[in-house]
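Fold this sequence, please.
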Amino acid sequence: MKKNMLKKLLLALITCISVNAFATNTPNNPLSWSLNADNSHYVKVNATGQFWLRHTDMNPGSTYNGYAKDKGLDIGIRRFRVQFQSQLSDRVFMYAQLGLNNFHSYSDRQTGFYVMDACSDYEVIKDKLALGGGLSSWVGFSRFSSPAVASIMGVDAPLQFQTTNDVTDQFIRRLGLYAKGYLGKLNYRLAMVQPFDIQKSPIASSVTISKKSSFSPLPPKMQWNAYLNYEFKDKEQNKTPYFAGTYLGAKKVSSLGAGITYQPNAMWALNNNSDTVFHALLFASIDYFYDAPVGHKGAAISYYANVAYTDFGHNYLRMLGAMNPMTGSKDLTILNGGGNRFPAYGTGTSYYMQLGYKLSQKIAKLNFMPYASMQRSYYTALKVPMNFFEAGMNILLDGHNSKLTVGYQDRPVFKNTGELITRKGSLILQLQTAL
């Protein structure tokens, strides 16, 4: 990597630390207004912003508006969120979230916030059963199908668990009905949701039928979701659908989970006789999450492991390029396409693990948490396993409320034949502030 690029990132890191030093008095609790004398009814508001400075080695053939580019720096707003929570009565809870994702140099100008979540539920049996509905993320088959982005450990959530992200959902949210609650130490969520029309998705122009499975453009059938996790230690919140990435030692959580997503006739393809055949969408996983303090000096460990089976039909494969800095590719032999895209989703079995350790020692009044993660997927459309790696360091100025994360992502590049030809990487500096 060239010295001038490293100098730029180092200068940016020093600048961000200096700026963030003035933000470390951010309160640990969101803004809150009580609606009754004992504060059991309330309205809360909180917000999170994640901003990226990134250097990317582009996939072969990458282009920006038709101009070839093999590497470069970019700046973007990865996420910005404003959340509203309200306990309106003893049994009625309302949740809404406005957000902005992936705003960068070639985004549409004057991009506005849009409604990400809008749901309410009624607690039928205290703690044990709540029924609700609306636009929400009470869905998915794994813990990080619904990640709390303000507490994720790396520069991004493990996005492979958001299997239909912006294809038949709206950034993992779907319209539907849900049930949730605790049965002893068992935390459960069940949901019936209606997938969004594929014709309105970013992949609509590429929806064609072939011998490889793809999403069907026919009216979608209802999708069914269930995720159960048994909490051996501390209890986690289930007011909102989002699971914490790491508690930085504030809790001792040991959670074993399992989940499933099923949608009949979601996919289609041509068989050997060129007849149209339909295929169900089926995802299932088993996962384990451990997050706890170590000793009494502020150290903490965080660990997550998942084994998932994702069935999209015959040889299905889809690329992911988070806030992709390129607009296209001139090399049609490259399976990934341009920019930072790689085959994150497909039919097959995947293994994922992440590990982080928050150091007890402070350096210049800062806490540090190094981390590493790996996705290894055996997709039927590829000739070799797909391996995606990330490693980095969290620099905690005020926990998750004010932090910097430096992470390096290493991704594979494949030919259209499914053969691995090279690997490329991205170095990302993320600034996060949260209220």
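Confidence is low (pLDDT under 50) at residues 17-28. Residues 54-71+125-434 form a domain with the Porin fold (CATH 2.40.160).
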